[in-house]
Amino acid sequence: EEALLNPDTIIQLATQLKEERTGRLIAEQKIAEYEPKISYLDSILSSTDSVTISQIAADYGMSPQQMNKLLHKLGIQKKVGNQWLLCKKHMNQGYTKSHTTEIPKADGGTKIVMNTKWTQKGRLFIYELLKKEGYYPQMDLEEIG
After folding, report:
1. pTM of the model
2. What range does the domain containing 25 cover?
3. What's the structural domain count of the chain?
4. Which sign does the torsion angle of CA 51, 73, 144, 128 carry?
5. What is the pLDDT of residues 98-143, one digit of tens each?
6. Which residue(s) pair with 103 in the sheet?
7. How many CA atoms are closer than 13 Å to the CA of 109, on its beta-carbon side?
């Protein structure tokens, strides 16, 4: 009842309401800006499996060869024999795992092949690194654009 009788109280309540609405609109705008970034990160963090460079490269619209060369250029990995390995600075960070695969040969023997797979921690590392370099996953670009 006092609010209806006192003009200063009405003005004060209206001002508070306006400030709350403005604050809510600002918060909604920030959420809209961050949603695309969150969705790709969510896809990384929701998975526990290690992934091949082919899968990561596909996220960026690149071939595995292009992604490997880019990571080499950025000083992340080097090729040793037929396998890409992390440079010393990035070893023992939990970014990759080496997998051994046996491939049957025509003569009945087997060929041992080593492959590097990226952990989700490594995938997140690549995401942050490439973002600094101006590379974004297609999922982020589609949602931003």
Report:
1. 0.63
2. 2-144
3. 1
4. positive
5. 888 888 889 989 988 888 899 989 999 999 999 999 998 887 665 5
6. 111
7. 3
